[in-house]
User: What shape does this take?
Amino acid sequence: MRDVLLKYGNKLKPAIPFAGLILLAVVYLFVTDFHPTPFHLTTIINQVAVMAVLSTGAVFIFALGSFDISLGVAMGVSVCVGILAYNAGAGVVGMLFVCLAVGIGVSLVNSVLSSVFRLPVFIMTMAMLTVLTAVLQILIGGKSSLLVPSGIQAPIKAFDNLWVRLLFVGVYFAICLVLFNYTKIGRRNKLVGGSPIVAAQTGVSIAKQTIITFLISGTGVGLAAFLMLTRAQAVSVDTGASTGMDVMMAIVFGGMPLSGGAHSKIAAGIVGSLSIVLVSQILTMLGVSPGLSQVYKAVLFLAVVFVASLSYREKMLSRAIMF
Amino acid sequence: MKGAYMKRLAKNILLTLIVPVSVTAIMLTACQIKGVPFWAPGSGFRAFIYSMMLAVFSAFALSLHMFAGRFDFSLGSVAILSAVIGGKIALAAGTNMFGMLIIFLIVGAVLGTISGLLYLLLNLPPMITSLGVALAYEGLSFAFSEGRGIQIALHPELLGGAALTPMFLILAISLIIMYALMNFTRFGFNYRAIQYGQKIAVDTGLNEKSNALVCYAICGSLVAIVGFLRLSYNGALQPQLNLSTSGTIFSAMLPLFIAALMVKVCESNIALVIGCFTATIITQGLSSIGLSAQTRSLISAFLMMFLLMYSINGQKWRDYFVNRKAKAAVQVAVA
Assistant: This one.
């Protein structure tokens, strides 16, 4: 029985997240009586966009067999500096560049800490999460939030539309798709994730690869910050606080193996983000309370990840060296 | 032989105490220079011990998992759900605070065991399992209390748990139990064997699953104490959603990094308590000299980053300075 499960699990594994997404879409159509309004679709895209961009960039780090849990707060800092720049007269384009510069800058610091000081990425980004949360609090200046004054919000609001979001997500995903699947950056990422020793023996510079990976992910952080800013025109001390874990959930939900390596998929970020948003929407439309809604999400998450990982069960319990 | 042992023991005690004593001295001096008291008048000392206790029990639970190669995001949610379920049972049973503590410990152990069983049954990376468990437990604590959480403020018989004497008692008993558990029981020996060589330990017949399960149950009870203290101190506890309970884990990171520096010269549980004491002294001192909460967080965060860098690169840095000194000495000799 176990062998049969493993055999079929192995063949079907890549299709499971997509099948799950299609199933969720069908359920969603069912709960909207097969008449989703433009409002419904816009709501979904608005919710997916930020998460999809962040998750797609994070796939590169995941492929290395690591994870950056500070991504969400890095985005919060990026939004905050973007608002400060805009309020100081930088304009919308200037604000976009500032968001990108901060996102890339933070990622660069992470990559240097990881590659030069050889800090384990997950633990290092947890320390970075604390640093960035404190930086965000200081930038906001002891208040609970920082806003773009209502008198100068109009130019930003011009970018708060569906097409801009689709354009940002589409272009970033297309670039990442090419980099991940058709260039040596992606191939080396999977190789390092599969076995850092083999990668180093074949001449891959792990330090260089780590820096490139974080730069790609940092670009995603900057773009996600811009999208969030155009939508909310504000930042609070809680912005992005739990986004890091949401991204992790989305990527795993999208079919990414936590160990990274050759089985990594660039689509995992978008598929996972869409799935999670669809689950939330379905539960909301069915009138499920917030508490129970989260319980159902947890059960679904564990079930999907369990089925998707059927083919790489190990005899020993899964663990990793933390220190 | 005995003399050498005593000498080593004295050296280890000195090295263990040097960090907390010097940090305390620095903070007290800073307060003296500023002309402000170290403890806020009134309940300042109790607040300090309360903060330290939260850090101690979170760090105990976190370290037990981390040193075994697991990362558990669900610890904060276990604390909240234990408080919601345990508090309701205690209120219904009309028990006193000691009864409530025992109920919390049992509920925490059960929740931890469920979390551990999921990890064993699914055999997914613990980080992933714990994400799902954290989501579920947060949702359940919200659903069980209909979003209202748990209030015991009107039940004085349940509120004494966060007074100084019970807190010291809980700390002393827990420390003795943890010390005995890790150093004199089969569980502790097996835990260390798995920690340092999982494959060899499993190949020689050690049951890592039962060890992991006991670990989860213990961690559940430890964070249930966090829930007990928070509920006793504040009189109420609100449920949290969207994985926001993970803050419990992050607040235990600085003590853990301080403890990681001391484990070479000190027993790990004692190192953790000293790490928590040191981290809380730093926060208290910075608060007393008037630094804002944001600046305090930033200083703690940079300190944490530095400790992490030192714990991994310390030997390399020391070698670099030793080599530089040796080179300089050779150059002087040649000249």
User: Anything to note?
Assistant: Chain A touches chain B through 55 residues (CB under 8 Å). Residues 21 and 275 of chain A are 5 Å apart (CA to CA).
